[in-house]
């Protein structure tokens, strides 16, 4: 692993710790409990070692018999308290880690929401899901499997060095040096395992994607007899993940063996001290051996800490890559006062989705006076949805201005601008929640009467009343519980219950059959009375009669039917 990559990994891990700042007190408290638990284990073994060495010395006549038994009152509270400390250590560290992870998930979700307002674009849904679930989860390894055991291990090494150093500095070195080397294993191993960890995290993302994509479009997968192809993709992704995990497991095994070797080195150090020092060194050798055994427990998981650091580093990179995309339309630093009115004016707007793509708008001018119903007609791909993106600040024009109530929206926060619009588009989505919850997305304080009022105006109130669970009926994912026309009407009710003064309708009836389309547009004409409406369609049909009409041609709005 290059120095640059190592620097990136360290910076990412430090940033993760920074994200957990709010949880530092509980995280540190839990580390404290673990250190106390490890030291209690050490104290237990020290006392046991002392008792044994007293009795052995008594057997050889070097000390009075029964002295070891005097230590029993000290041993008892440690014997009783240790299991409690072990329990407390587990509970405290896991509870603290879960809180930190929950915060990280909320942080990541809000960063995505800010950065992907136009949808995930070329991103992959399964992979993003993997980042917010598996990658965030892998971060717990940084705390639970690396920092906590390292802190406990360091405390044990220092305490053992002090205890043994009081007997003989040589003994302290012989026993604690191998243990100190074991402490250095994780930071040494992490860079070696980093590439495999990166491969495993990426492979896991690809596997999720291979599973989620065909399942999300299962009807099309089955209708095209494409299960076999989908299964092949899943198999290939699973094989890549297995290969990457095998690479990680190999390094894990190596680290485990190195850890065991160092643990035995500490034990051998104590024995060597005893053998070389003769009878006088017995007490030190027994104590050293007991301490080496006591250290085995906190040190057992230490070799794996290197893999945990590498895995957390790889996952952190994937999270930050997604979370650090630029915000498409950052809110202005200094905002202007929100306008009282809502007349819409578009002046000389130019816009392209990317520098290397053609302009969608090449000097767009149009006006929608307050209370007017205006239609903008354009063929597929002319830029109708792009205009909605500009109006709602999901994208920004490269030149020109958009004014609401005489105020340039560039100086307003996105939330203030979006508060002026209720949008109903051809792919209006219902979420897998109750009808009431779906409507209250637009008006959180609306009571049931207001919801039924909007549903009635959208022409679907009676149908909802007739449902056994009424407003509490769940819609299913994407509104699967209802037909296309019914979904559109519930979505229209959501737009109507919203207090926003301007209705933006983007092909609101597209995809419905001819009769349903006409019926829906008739409902729309009545329901939108009294509101400012901008209707974007490829052709004008049915009863919707705008007061003003524009055609979208070559990125400009031309008045009239032409
Ligand atoms: N989020 C986006 N990112 C990149 N390009 C986009 C995005 N949305 C639209 N485009 C591109 O902008 C151009 C105009 O598309 P837009 O969807 O605005 O047209 P439309 O009139 O709404 O078409 P349709 O009626 O088929 O929905 C197209 O070339 C399209 O590929």
TrEMBL record:
Q: Where in the cell is it found?
A: Cell membrane
Q: Give residue ranges for domain ABC transmembrane type-1.
A: 28-294
Q: Which InterPro entries match?
A: AAA+_ATPase, ABC1_TM_dom, ABC1_TM_sf, ABC_CydC/D, ABC_transporter-like_ATP-bd, P-loop_NTPase, Type_1_exporter
Print the keywords alphabetically: ATP-binding, Membrane, Nucleotide-binding, Transmembrane, Transmembrane helix
Report the Pfam families cross-referenced here. ABC_tran
Q: How does it sit in the membrane?
A: Multi-pass membrane protein
In its UniProt record, a GO molecular function of this protein is: ATP hydrolysis activity
Q: Does the keyword Transmembrane helix apply?
A: yes
Transmembrane regions listed in the UniProt entry: 24-44, 56-75, 142-164, 170-189, 253-275, 281-300
Please state every residue range assigned to the domain named ABC transporter: 344-562
**UniProt GO cellular component terms:** plasma membrane
The alphabetized list of GO BP terms reads: cell redox homeostasis; glutathione transmembrane transport
- Please give the PANTHER family that the UniProt record associates with this protein: ATP-BINDING CASSETTE SUB-FAMILY B, ATP-BINDING CASSETTE SUB-FAMILY B MEMBER 6
| NCBIfam families listed in its UniProt record | CydC
Recorded protein name is ATP-binding cassette subfamily C protein CydC
Instruction: Tell me what organism the protein belongs to.
Output: Humitalea rosea
